[in-house]
Amino acid sequence: MAETMQGLSRTLTCGDARESHIGKTVTVCGWVQRQRDLGGLIFVDLRDRTGIVQLAFDDNTDRAVFEKASTLRSEYVIAAVGEVRARSAVNNEIPTGKVEVAVTELRILSLAETPPFEISDDCNAREELRLKYRYLDLRRPSLQRNLRLKHQVMKATRDYFDAHGFLELETPMLIRSTPEGARDFLVPSRLHNGEFYALPQSPQLYKQLLMVSGCDRYMQLARCFRDEDLRADRQPEFTQIDLEMSFVSMEDILELGEGYVSTLFKEVLGVDIPLPLPRMTYAEAMSRFGSDKPDTRFGMEITDVSDLVKDCGFGVFSSAVQNGGSVRGIVAKGAAGTLSRKEMDKLTEFARGIGAKGMAWVRWVEDKPASSFGKFFSAEEMDALLACLGAEKGDAVLMIADKNRVTLPVLGALRLEVARKLDIIPDTYNFLWITEFPFFEWDEETETWVAMHHPFTAPMDECIPLLDSDPGAVRAKAYDLVLNGVELSSGSIRITDPELQDKMFHALGLGDEEIKQKFGFLTSAFQYGAPPHGGLGIGLDRLVMLMAKADSIREVIPFPKVQNARELMTSCPSPVDQQQLDELGLCITHTEQKEEQ
Amino acid sequence: MAETMQGLSRTLTCGDARESHIGKTVTVCGWVQRQRDLGGLIFVDLRDRTGIVQLAFDDNTDRAVFEKASTLRSEYVIAAVGEVRARSAVNNEIPTGKVEVAVTELRILSLAETPPFEISDDCNAREELRLKYRYLDLRRPSLQRNLRLKHQVMKATRDYFDAHGFLELETPMLIRSTPEGARDFLVPSRLHNGEFYALPQSPQLYKQLLMVSGCDRYMQLARCFRDEDLRADRQPEFTQIDLEMSFVSMEDILELGEGYVSTLFKEVLGVDIPLPLPRMTYAEAMSRFGSDKPDTRFGMEITDVSDLVKDCGFGVFSSAVQNGGSVRGIVAKGAAGTLSRKEMDKLTEFARGIGAKGMAWVRWVEDKPASSFGKFFSAEEMDALLACLGAEKGDAVLMIADKNRVTLPVLGALRLEVARKLDIIPDTYNFLWITEFPFFEWDEETETWVAMHHPFTAPMDECIPLLDSDPGAVRAKAYDLVLNGVELSSGSIRITDPELQDKMFHALGLGDEEIKQKFGFLTSAFQYGAPPHGGLGIGLDRLVMLMAKADSIREVIPFPKVQNARELMTSCPSPVDQQQLDELGLCITHTEQKEEQ
């Protein structure tokens, strides 16, 4: 049976031991990182969340204590009392490296079996095993650091918005299902068999109702749920920094949002983010970077060469332009050597994988540029093309010819892929706002217009007349905050005019009955005096992942789920008792596993 | 079509207008509380969350603006620009009463229909109507005040625990169902048909695993879910201030907890809570107050008169004692007049309603005490009884004779009922800790021992030997924080010894297979080095309700559910599409409504 702390009280955390403690008697607690038994001398590295301190047992140590120290093994939990003294062999690698604790009392609070992997950041156990034993995985310093960072971000976030007059208000988790966008997780009701709650995809409707309630400025770190087929680095549940403000224009919200990120990065990371943040319209971002979330940490912008090649002898180019598409390219400076012919083949495959019919390229290694389409071009034509693209000797060029909705995103993706291959992305934080998003997106599958943001987003005033005549040209009062090519935040000014809201619902193909059933409480609320309002939501997990320079959001969530939405430590989801189903008035019709489909 | 704020920017919130603003041009926004048209003079009370300011329109007002002001109706949303000036008729009832805004520009941002009830704290609309139009109900000043108070409590809570080294760490909402205590809400899985997640009743297991992970000090304002048959003032979802600490004893946790409430009440309410808080064992609380959550704001403590009456001529008394029960009473000082015979009959009915067979009483109005059992008592016996109880002329006595598990709680409830009738409860905040709870409770229905706290609670060291021989006598390292008779918080030191944990599970009737299936991940975690730890959870909604002096937790939750777990504004739960059920592999077997059963 393990010993207890009875009568002991921790007086120092491991990572905080310093020379100023020398001569003091302290009590430290933690896990044995390792024990080294050198005959008459035993050293123990003791670890807690603050760091590691060395415990020393030697000739002067009480024999019973020494004997006990000799039984210590990795991950035992112990408490040790002793005097802090200078270390004979200083370790400059760790902040506590100049001191050690000469132990006079030792208690073993918990024994430990050998862990299935080493508790260290060098550990290369596979992720499944680490997640199964997440409570051991979390002991690693990098994960401890990430959790602490997330706490600091949450704290700084709440402090900032509190200082700006926002109230943190709780919205319900058991809400009405309104199938829009992603799928809802459903919660069957026991008191009302046959009826269901849904878990919120976001607090969108409630935060708008809080504005109608006169709450003025709302914020919440809100848990959100989406039952999606999980792509890499999505979680079925995630946290959103959610906010909404009344009596404001888009300008006010952007100002507040950028004040927030600048304060946050300064306070938590000590990094200066110059304000105001750059802004770019959706149209500009697409044409320069082929993306509505451009990574602006490097150049390699897209150039349109359609005019130059529209009558050229290369049919792929000329017909793309003549069919209303475009021919565009990017230039990888000085990369003609690195992007070998073989690399170009790989990049062509990559482009095909994301929807292009092919990719044209130029490698200007020697005096004469080599290219995939040279035989269709005269030397003068090639010179003119390269001049137009701004390519010089030593550069490589990648080109796509297709409809714009292929050309641009494919070049956007190639730009990122090439930058990664060339390792030219600097380690900085580049924020920017993307504005003037299209309101509608044409869904080829259902042949209907769908809302690019969501149906509560206000169209730009000057676009309202286009709603009937040219929906595709309607831009929205919507804005995204992008950091290093990642969409961090999405927001908009909302519709508050009940007639306009109805009109937008109709344009999205909703009938009157459907509107009333799904959103009746919202349009009804707008009848009783709705203030102009808008807001945004920031993905907390992604934000912290970028700040921590982590590879995945799973590294910043204490107990994440894997791609098929299972949590490996507790094995959930899991079957439940028949009695539980009976109480809910439910039966199971399928038990197939859909993850492999 | 309503006007917009284009080109305008709010410069002052309504409730903040003061004499220092006189002469300044301001822009204010809000809802029209009321409009008074006095012919050539129009006054508008404009309301936002900060308060009310008067807008004035008179002979000097531009005619178009004056005309527009004449169209204003209650709850219209407007923006007004004008100069702040001194008011001729000062209103000392409100902080802005010395000034008004002479409006030069007026915009109507939203029209409003006549609300179904007046937006005022005097409104006496029934709660169902208020909840259906919750977005209007929330405009009332008292609810705005409650939401602001809750925000302040949440902020002060996080600040306190952050300052004490706690990290706010997120635990999952989609977890494994472990049917213990209350019923779980279940969430069917679409990717794993036939399997379910549960929503957490509390983050108990995860916070213990965070301690095993070396996180040391964890806190979270955690949403919790319990699918119970709703008693008054319970919600299916509620928020818990949840925390856990490593390497501590009970003493450390109590000290931290009381430091928290004292800081909170000082910061948010300006109220001093003297420390240390009083403590009382469970046994003492039951025998003195008949409750494990005694309201100590008033006396009227319970006196045991069993010895005195065990051989008396009144069979109800003597047989209760002879059968191992007791006879006990409370004295309502000076209440012989108020507690008339009719009132005593009502109190007897009340006592019967909560399990007593009857109630004995004495009313000492005249020289000779009148009582319900006088004919069985001699004058001397009565004198002795009243002396033992400490009753004097003018007092009323209520007595119960039964088994202790009836006598004590019934007298505890009568004590509260009488105090309310007599209106003798002072308006103070009385905190106390209740300690040394029994570990086990005997469940008469299932004839098994169940855990009074939960199965992870550590028994007191000296009670471990009693586990097999006398489970009923085992006390736990558990503690409740009680405020004014309400259980605010519940906590304990946890078991960390895997063998002891197994032993407790067995004592609670769980078999090895069941333990492994439900809690295997926990007992397995304890094999790898678990620090001593403990914690507590504080009901945020109840805490804020008491601080706000509100009547119900529904008054401090923005969008609460009613007793049958429905939310009236959005009408949920609700039926869902067949397609949603198909994707989940479920079908509905019952659609009956259980609320009326």
UniProtKB/TrEMBL annotation, chains A, B:
Top EC group: ligase
Coiled-coil annotated residue ranges, if any: none
InterPro entries on file: Aa-tRNA-synt_II (IPR004364), aa-tRNA-synth_II (IPR006195), aa-tRNA-synth_II/BPL/LPL (IPR045864), Asp-tRNA-ligase_1 (IPR004524), Asp-tRNA-ligase_1_N (IPR047089), Asp/Asn-tRNA-synth_IIb (IPR002312), AspRS_core (IPR047090), GAD-like_sf (IPR004115)
EC numbers, comma separated: 6.1.1.12
Aminoacyl-transfer RNA synthetases class-II family profile domain sequence ranges: 147-558
PANTHER family with a match to the protein in the record: ASPARTATE--TRNA LIGASE, MITOCHONDRIAL, ASPARTYL/LYSYL-TRNA SYNTHETASE
Function field: Catalyzes the attachment of L-aspartate to tRNA(Asp) in a two-step reaction: L-aspartate is first activated by ATP to form Asp-AMP and then transferred to the acceptor end of tRNA(Asp).
Entry similarity comment: Belongs to the class-II aminoacyl-tRNA synthetase family. Type 1 subfamily.
Protein known as: Aspartate--tRNA ligase
